[in-house]
Specification:
about 290 residues; alpha+beta; 3 domains; three-stranded antiparallel beta sheet; 13 helices; extended
């Protein structure tokens, strides 16, 4: 692994000027999005023009034989070939891969857009997200994320087309395949079974976590008059961290304030929760669990 700061940081201003002299603005503007923005009068910052050159200089310094990237990087990769020629090097071979659309089926998969499947997410969450994609998008996931051959994928399409295979069954197999790659076949099977029980059959989730109260998550024990037995005033952020729906109390606070928390189906924004002895459903975004207050 090499960091491009190794050769970019030592560049002096005159080095940068010489580097920019090896390429023209006209050639940079050949990039589709630049050409479109220039025609529409949308501003293009100078650093955007320099970026392809900086990436191309990486290829020069590494004397790259092959460079891989998404289809959105094609222009930058080709600039690398041209700059290598200019430095007397054989041009690299360029290979591109299709961009993977996120679960919304519109934008490319991105954590910032919230349409991603995290490779470290729990099996149940990962499986449920796969099941959210459309039947049409499923084929792209089969092709890009699994080892199934294009011949086998075509056969699956044929079977669905003639009614021999239901699309949801093909998607269930896809979910188990993807989850199995990042977790295990056993966990993938359990995730599929849990999805079938909870989502398809409408049964209660198995994921029940006992929380002993009072503990560090409890602020105060109270006895309201409207129902028998004690209730507990619970710090929501500490509780979320304790039951594992977030990695930290600060993350819990951010998500709670953003309106992602629900208790027993009711949206919660405030810090203090009132929880009676018994079983409660705590949901944070698409993650959830049952909590037993004892």
């Amino acid at each position: 692994m090499r960091y491009n700061s190794e050769w970019l940081e030592p560049l002096r201003w005159d080095d940068v000027v010489r580097l920019t002299g090896r390429y023209t603005v006209a050639r940079i503007l050949e990039r589709d999005d630049f050409a479109k923005r220039y025609k529409e009068g949308t501003p293009i910052s100078m650093h955007e023009l320099l970026y392809p050159l900086g990436q191309a200089y990486d290829s020069v310094m590494l004397k790259c034989d092959i460079e891989l990237g998404g289809t959105d990087q094609k222009f930058n990769l080709l600039v690398g070939r041209e700059l290598q020629r200019d430095f007397g090097q054989p041009p690299q071979i360029v290979g591109t891969t299709p961009l993977l659309e996120g679960i919304n089926g519109v934008d490319k998969m991105s954590k910032s857009l919230g349409n991603y499947i995290g490779i470290t997410e729990p099996p149940e969450v990962m499986f449920r997200k796969v099941m959210q994609i459309s039947d049409e998008l499923m084929w792209q996931y089969w092709e890009l994320l699994t080892d199934k051959s294009v011949v086998d994928i075509a056969e699956m399409k044929r079977r669905i087309g003639v009614g021999e295979l239901h699309p949801i069954d093909a998607k269930m197999e896809l979910g188990q395949t993807i989850v199995g790659e990042f977790h295990s076949a056993a966990e993938a099977k359990r995730a599929a079974e849990e999805f079938t029980r909870v989502v398809r059959r409408g049964e209660d989730p198995i994921d029940i976590r006992a929380v002993q109260l009072p503990n560090e998550a409890v602020m105060e024990k109270v006895y309201p008059t409207e129902h028998p037995g004690p209730s507990f005033l619970v710090n929501a952020d500490k509780l979320l961290a304790k039951i594992g729906l977030v990695e930290s109390v600060s993350e819990a606070a951010r998500k709670r304030k953003a309106g992602a928390l629900a208790l027993d189906g009711e949206k919660v924004v405030g810090l203090i929760l009132s929880m009676r002895v018994g079983v409660h459903t705590v949901q944070l975004g698409k993650k959830w669990c049952r909590v037993i207050v004892e």
